[in-house]
Amino acid sequence: MITAALARPRGLLLLTSSCFLALALAVVLFGILPADATVRDALLDVASPAIVAVMRVFNAMGDWRGLLPGTILLFVVFRSARVQWWIWLVLMISAPVAESVVKWLVARRRPDELSMGFPSGHATAAAAFFGAVMFLAGSLPPPARRWVRVAAAAGIVVVAVARVILRAHWPSDALGGIALGLALAAAAALIASRPRDQLTGT
Question: Is 46 exposed, middle or buried (0-12, 13-18, 19+ CB in 10 A)?
Fold first, then answer.
């Protein structure tokens, strides 16, 4: 049962890191991807003032205003997070570092700015945080576990959409951030799972 549970972060790491590398390579080779303008225009077409206002609230879930109290709450709610606190703290620190390095390497500009945009820092941080929540939710009873994971997945999506609607990023910037953040969260989950492997002899 433990082995099956550990296969999930390992598989997620392989999937998300592969997606991120493929997307980053496409951005380096082609710059603005064919679907970027189409998807961005479609989202901006439905971006009424009310929707933009809501997106500004969701946007805070990808920066310190949401992530700082969220990380503290993570340690309060999940005992396993407190026991291995350094893993999750390093995760939240490594996310902005990783996306900043990739931004410098890829050097693709944002839609309306000169600053670099791939991957989205907000999407990376949100995916790393909510990815950690999804893994840690494994300790919850089945009904609660399911709803927490659904809410975490929704958090990742709304932050990514908010970054596009607020004209800060191309859609591929947001997708790259999701892939990078989830890959980092999966790596952290694998590290957090290793003591259980050793204890069970698997």
Answer: exposed
